[in-house]
Hints:
Shape: globular
Radius of gyration: 21 Å
Number of helices: 14
Amino acid sequence: MDTPPLALTPPxxxxxxxxxxxxxxxxxxxxxxxxxxxxxxxxxxDLGANWALLLLxxxxxxxxxxxxxxxxxxxFDRHVDAINEPNRPIPSGRMPGRWGLGIAIAWTGLSLVWxxxxxxxxxAACGLAIALSWAYSAPPVRLKNNGWWGNAACAxxxxxxxxxxxxxxxxxxxxxxxxxxxxxxxxxxGAHGIMTLNDFKAIEGDRRMGVASLPVQLGALGAARAxxxxxxxxxxxxxxxxxxxxxxxxxxxxxxxxxxxxxLMARFLRQPVERALxxxxxxxxxxxxxxxxxxWGLRQLHLQGLA
Length: 307
């Protein structure tokens, strides 16, 4: 009896829509969208009267700018991902040829076009965030080759720029002011530690590919200590500022949320590699909750004419 010939699957020439969505990583869009919302709240402006700006900004910071940065990073990280996470769209072959690069460029262009709807400040902030995302991933700059610089670029883009954009857009393009600027920068410093948490899953691949992430530079325990300090100390500083601005209840809430992260951090310091994602899943929500508490504090100052 003859054996029927095996059916050969033709090579994929274009990615499925689900693969494109996986490349753009919707789960990563939350941090910049949340930071933008914090900036909107902190502006003290009427949220109902400016709902269109709020919606435009949320789309810009998450599904456009953040998504484009994910595509850029996956394209230039495809060789590292082949070691660390071979099932990702590009190394797995589900995103064939140069489709990954094409999507990264197209989403970057779409982000810039969308940003024109946000006024001069929104466009400038978008342009800077996109420049940082390409500098983070793409040679010859490739900031991510050094964990200090790479994490700083991501943290500033995801938290600080998004916060300041939300405030400035709601103020009609005006400068956000020293209060918002200070909190946005402090939370950017805290986000540097959050970015470090993501590096523990890729230590072996980063070491082999010459990526000097903080776990590679400092060792797992040293990087864990740095991440905890970067996350916790800015929250203490924010609480102190809020207290100085006559917002004691907001200060107490931010400090309490920071202290609630310590049990998670203590277990993380005992088992850095195994517990990094645990801190991301349960500690980071406490961190970003403090961001919104401080934003409502600034809103109160604006409404009282004190900021």
